[in-house]
Amino acid sequence: MDDDPDRTSARGDAAGSSWRELFGGGRGPVLALILLGDWLVAADALVTATIMPGVGASLSAFAWFGWAAAAFLTGLVVAGASAGWLAERLGLRAALILGGAFFALGCVLSAAAPGIAVFMLGRILQGCAAGWVIGLIYVALAMLFPPSQLPRVFALATSVWGIATLAGPLLGGLFADAGLWRGVFWLFAAQAVLFTAAVARLIPPSVCRTGSNRFAVRPLILLGAGIAAMASAGVVEGVAPAVALGGGGVGLLLLAFADDRARASGVLPRRAASPGLPIGAAYLAYFATTAAGVAFALYGPAVLQFRHGLSALEAGYVAAAEALAWTAAGLAVAGAGAAWRGRLIVAGAASILAGVTALALVMNGASLAAVAGAGAVLGAGYGLSYGFISRRVMAGFDEADRARGSSAIGVVRNAGGAVGAALAGLAANAAGFGGGLDEANVAAVAWAAFGVGIPFALIGLAAALRLTRRRSPLGPLQAGRAPGITEAA
What we know:
Layout: H1 10-16, H2 19-22, H3 27-59, H4 65-81, H5 83-90, H6 92-112, H7 116-144, H8 150-177, H9 181-202, H10 217-233, H11 239-261, H12 278-308, H13 312-319, H14 321-333, H15 338-362, H16 368-395, H17 399-430, H18 442-451, H19 453-468
């Protein structure tokens, strides 16, 4: 049986393939709600990085910079892993309300924090809420939008992240310069309340609610411990502790994966465990390509500031070339015909490989244009491919598995980001980054931090080729549902 939904969806595309159709059927307000959720998560993460110096000065907590980010990331991945189960158990509306309420509470705690402990608790709650919101947004897309429109929806969602990349540091800088870092969190608390109220009004109460009470606790504990260890590896001082945490984190993630795979109903769909199957190849492509490109946002600005004498804001805007290209490419190909979608998935993965390789070569060079160009190639790769990969994933599950299968997209991407960030941090610190950048180590740091992404990009390209190969078996769990991946997607 042919597993390529793009070659068998011509009639579905004809029925709803225009931008006008995307907003039809009362979906416009729901789409606006989804974009608001994306903005909350994206802008909160990006703004916080800008205001942390003010937080450190106010709370006497400069040593906690990295730990605040690690706490947010751990909450993001672990809560995201439970988003599908939460939607099945409570229903999509109640689950999103819970996520919005936790987000608002986390922002209030951070805004009113008298010390670093309360601030950290707020960041953990914000991370958990962000994981739920992102995972549940994928569920909402799978349940409320025609599969033929998913590339357009993902392109719009990506544009929100692009806007946040540009506006987030500026917004944070304005509050920080005015000495009002707490105002950022009050602002996002208000937006989270607005999001929660809109969910209660716009999402039907019955969507996705199956009453499922099956939940894999042990894999989630192992996942949380693994992500926490990986996130901490980039924070601790000294190469040996970082290597120990990084290696232990990888081991815990592998244990979580093996334990989850042995369960009939786990965090990830069963077919996610087999890269030889199309669904497994899609998840592997997500994981590997996310891990490949994460170093640019983490280490690009620091290298640019040292090598070119840029301010933090200026360096951030050079790095924003990735987000802008991602948005532009996603919007440009969102309406691509069925014959092009598989090619765009492969072209996107190849572009990610080219961008990561170019960054490793030019980050220490003299040309800002070359760095921005390499970042744009990297971002364009994500824009070309991610909407169509998600389309195939969501079309590959029946109603019983769609919530968990869709929410798992966010889990896999965030886990890839955590692993990629940790390994890039280990490589950069081994090259001397932990002691600061200087003329003696900047070239080695640039190559180490970005070069570690090249193997991941190669794995991502191989997974993309596997995903788009024609006439591949779907696996035993798809038996009995022949239309599942060949229907309009």
